[in-house]
Design brief:
The protein is about 35% helix and about 20% strand. With about 375 residues, it is α+β, with helices and mostly antiparallel strands. It folds into 2 domains: about 170 residues, no CATH class; about 190 residues, Nucleotidyltransferase, domain 5, CATH 3.30.420. The chain has a 5-stranded mixed beta sheet with strand order 12-11-10-13-14. A 4-stranded antiparallel beta sheet has the order 2-8-7-3. Strands 4-5-6 form a 3-stranded antiparallel beta sheet, with no helix packed on it. Strand 15 and strand 16 form a beta hairpin. Helix 2 crosses helix 3. The N and C termini lie far apart (about 65 Å).
């Protein structure tokens, strides 16, 4: 059974063929000049010598930059407007009168970036046309049956250029063979499901960490960047395959709310970042949306300690017990795999949003931030009555 859903927006990232790199490098220099001009002009308006301060909007920057295209042979007025809009958005986001300058040359140069509007990118045969220049990209067939939106040409650390374009497509929802699954994210096993399936940790960065260190000590920066990109590609490929497998198999997907951002500040930072938990959650969300799946995030509190059979908190806890991978519940006697048991508790937490032990009712659980409010209200009511 298939059901048509409403159109949704997603971003495609396609590699540009190397024949267009010199033109894009020159266009990126012009984009940097426009950005730096907007940065200097906005700072002068926000910090004037005399008179009131003024924060220039994207519309005002567009008016001030009218007629500037004659000085930029590679980019047009639409690209200049996109740069002004992006600058105004970032300045408002970070609440600063002046942002960082974009450097075009030298060891600390900024990575290339050339934004465009939807009307600027057009199909022409087997190529794409932008600002009077024809571009060829790999995997162009992915752009066949979609509507192109705005996007940009972006350069990576190695120097390769990529076409990042938002596309509008109509997803088709299909019915999955299995109803639901719980996912527990970890380090020894990147993912463990409530059905007992596991994705072993790939150690994508850890496996080539020594090679990266040797390249950095020898001063081979380009080789080190390529090794970093290799690790990132291997990680992304493994997570793409696993997330597609989960989305195709299960209708409802429940994931624990483990925070990779917080754990990245501990001594486990390298292993946490190498696991790619955030990337996996993102892939599950947009792939589940396109396939009509339900993806939910629930609290992981006490999911490792709780027994998935009886709910008693008899499991291992604390940093000293991380080496305990299997344990027996002292209450019911069931033997549990640590990660699979946690995945089953995560799924149970979504089914019934109560504590793991199941003894407290939902109405008796009060958030700490809301707990003082009823007490203050009672005190005021008593004072009024007196």
């Amino acid at each position: 059974m298939s059901v048509n859903l409403t159109p949704h927006i997603r971003t495609l990232r396609l590699k540009v063929k190397s024949e267009s790199y010199p033109w894009l490098d020159a266009a990126a220099v012009e984009v940097n000049q426009v950005w730096n001009w907007a940065n200097a002009t906005s700072y002068k308006a926000a910090r004037p010598f005399v008179g009131p301060a003024q924060w220039l909007s994207a519309y005002e920057l567009d008016k001030l930059s009218s007629g500037a295209t004659e000085y930029f042979p590679h980019i047009g007025s639409e690209t200049i407007q996109r740069v002004n809009a992006e600058f105004a958005t970032r300045r408002k986001q970070f609440k600063k009168a002046k942002l960082r300058w974009r450097v075009s040359r030298g060891a600390k140069r900024s990575l290339g970036w050339v934004p465009f509007k939807a009307a600027q990118l057009k199909r022409k045969g087997n190529a794409l046309r932008f600002a009077g220049k024809a571009f060829r990209v790999f995997e162009r067939e992915r752009l066949e049956s979609v509507t192109l939106k705005s996007g940009c040409f972006a350069q990576d650390a190695v120097g390769d250029w990529w076409l990042c374009v938002a596309v509008e497509s109509v997803p088709v929802a299909t019915e999955a063979p299995h109803p639901e699954v719980g996912l527990d994210l970890g380090l020894k096993d990147t993912v463990a499901t409530s059905d007992g399936d596991k994705l072993k940790a790939g150690h994508f960065y850890r496996g080539i960490e020594d090679k990266i260190a040797q390249a950095q000590r020898r001063g081979h920066r380009r080789q080190a960047k390529r090794l970093h990109r290799t690790a990132a590609r291997r990680r992304k490929d493994a997570l793409h395959k696993y997330s597609r497998k989960i989305v195709d198999r299960y209708q409802t997907i429940v994931v624990g709310d483990v925070s990779s951002t917080q754990l990245a500040q501990t001594r486990m930072a390298k292993s946490v970042l190498d696991a790619g938990w955030g990337m996996l959650k993102t892939q599950l969300h947009y792939k589940g949306q396109s396939a009509g799946r339900g993806v939910h995030i629930v609290s992981e509190r006490n999911t490792t300690r709780g027994c998935s059979s009886c709910g008693s908190l008899t499991g291992p806890s604390g940093l000293d017990s991380l080496a305990v991978r299997t344990w027996r519940c002292s209450a019911c006697g069931d033997m549990h795999d640590r990660d699979v048991n946690a995945a089953r508790n995560i799924l149970s937490a979504w089914r019934c949003p109560t504590s793991v032990s199941g003894n407290e009712s939902l109405s008796s659980v009060i958030a700490p931030s809301r707990a003082p409010r009823p007490r203050k209200a009672r005190i005021r009511s008593r004072a009024t009555a007196a």
